[in-house]
Amino acid sequence: MLARLRTSFLTGVVVIAPVALTIWLIWSVIGWIDGFVLPFVPDAYRPEKILGTLFGYDLQLNIRGVGVVVFLIFATFVGWMAKGLIGRSFIRYAENLVSRMPVVRSFYSGVKQIAETVLAQQERSFEKACMIEYPRKGIWAIGFVSTTAKGEIAERKSSKGPMVSVFVPTTPNPTSGFLLFFPKSDIVELDMSIEDAAKLVISAGLVYPPDKKSQTKITKKAE
Question: According to the CATH classification, is domain 128-214 in 2.30.30?
Answer without folding.
Answer: yes
